[in-house]
Amino acid sequence: MAPEVSFYDYIIIGGGTAGCPLAATLSESANVLVLERGGSPYENPSKPDKGNFFPNLLDVSPSSYAQEFTSEDGVYNARARVLGGGSVINAGFYSRAEPEFLKQTGLNEALVNYSYQWVEKKIAFEPSMLQWQSALRDGLLEAGVLPNNGFTFDHIYGTKIGGTIFDGDDHRHTAADLLEYANPYRIKVYLHATVEKIIFETKVFSRTRAQGVVFEDELGKKHWALLTKDYKSEVILSAGALGSPQLLMLSGIGPSQQLKKFGIKVVMDQPLVGQGLVDNPLNFLLVPSPSPVELSLVSFVGITRFGSYIEACSGISFTPSWSRSVAKALAAILNQTEQSSTKLFQEGILNPESLLDTRIRGGIIFEKVKDPISSGYLELRNMNPRDNPKVTFNYFQAPEDLMKCVHGVKIAIDAVYSKSFSNFRYEILSAKALLELIVNLPLNQRPRHLTSAFSLEKFCMDTVMTIWHYHGGCRLGKVVDRDYKVLGVEALRIVDGSTFTSSPGTNPQATVMMLGR
């Protein structure tokens, strides 16, 4: 039980992908408090494992690892609420940032490499490439995503096998594991601890200074965690691209008009908080297979030169309702009964304790738009920190983003219809049928054009989803300086994806953990 009032050198809001390595590092020489609004991934050790990827994301219960939200664009999304953050619910791919990203952020190259290695030693592995993943990788090479770069953590044009945070037994290792590096005598981690606001000291003729935070425990009891008088003491926001801008606003730092609307006392008018929020669009093909497929999440990536990443997973589990939706859509396309198309799903999971409901015999091949120009914003919905803010991403507002998607989907189709992948597709299913299958699924709340299955531009716009790599809202150079200190405020930093101007590498988790270190 947390005391009513306590003092720490560092108070970290959010025990996620950045917060855990950050806390472990700071605990080497200071007293650290981590406040995480979610629970522990260790309570049910098999729950975060590979086979439960989609069931965990689709779990809407109050204690789930993922809190769902729908953006104003009509796209379903989720944010992590668990110790370890997004690394507990993601597809596990581990790949470093491109050199350009690191140059932009001005980070020290030697320290960056050392920090990546510190993370990798604990939680990164080389994935096993079985039949389906290998066939698709070879299909991508046939489609021209060259050269074949083999296994590497580095970001290189062409097709490569990347790292994974799943070990050989499909058990997930997360950012929470990095807390094993921490000094246990100098760190406190409180779970189900929701920060309501940051407390500031405002004096005439001196800069506003963070003093601590007010948080509520699971039972609704309030606590005050305050900074020690050490001149280095800081509050550090690591609450993610939604949580960090939301908490800044709830604490009185943000666009003054919006704060006044909710009766929040304005500590500092900062109109750029919540602005420049970007989500990388994802579009995918679901490809049923006549041959059995392995359970696999992302193991390789095609890094194109035109700004698109191609990744894939196979043999994954959906919930029963999702499985029925897929079977129904497929039956309509093939003019078959729903029962016969349901044979595409493998039933018979041996372990009744498992969350697996229905495994699909086939795979998902998806395309992610790199560095979208389209951007949006975040606004408060209310004053409750537990509720999601109002989020708009403005997918495909820029025509350049749409062109990248079209080109990426074409490459994915070419890989599916390559010679290398021929054992894992039905000849009866044309490319148009695969597009039609996706158009008929309840993927989002966006309207469908009649030509969605004929026009790749319409297909991209109508069936857009998230890859959960949204970022921005407290951007570097706009809200924080090069040292991630909040501009105009003392003793307050932000260390997470909300500071990013682009999503690093093909998948950001490696770089978010590196940044925390």
TrEMBL record:
<feature type="domain" description="Glucose-methanol-choline oxidoreductase N-terminal">
    <location>
        <begin position="240"/>
        <end position="254"/>
    </location>
</feature>
<dbReference type="InterPro" id="IPR036188">
    <property type="entry name" value="FAD/NAD-bd_sf"/>
</dbReference>
<keyword id="KW-0274">FAD</keyword>
<protein>
    <recommendedName>
        <fullName>Glucose-methanol-choline oxidoreductase N-terminal domain-containing protein</fullName>
    </recommendedName>
</protein>
<dbReference type="InterPro" id="IPR000172">
    <property type="entry name" value="GMC_OxRdtase_N"/>
</dbReference>
<keyword id="KW-0732">Signal</keyword>
<comment type="similarity">
    <text>Belongs to the GMC oxidoreductase family.</text>
</comment>
<dbReference type="Pfam" id="PF05199">
    <property type="entry name" value="GMC_oxred_C"/>
</dbReference>
<dbReference type="Pfam" id="PF00732">
    <property type="entry name" value="GMC_oxred_N"/>
</dbReference>
<dbReference type="InterPro" id="IPR007867">
    <property type="entry name" value="GMC_OxRtase_C"/>
</dbReference>
<dbReference type="InterPro" id="IPR012132">
    <property type="entry name" value="GMC_OxRdtase"/>
</dbReference>
<dbReference type="InterPro" id="IPR051871">
    <property type="entry name" value="GMC_Oxidoreductase-Related"/>
</dbReference>
<keyword id="KW-0285">Flavoprotein</keyword>
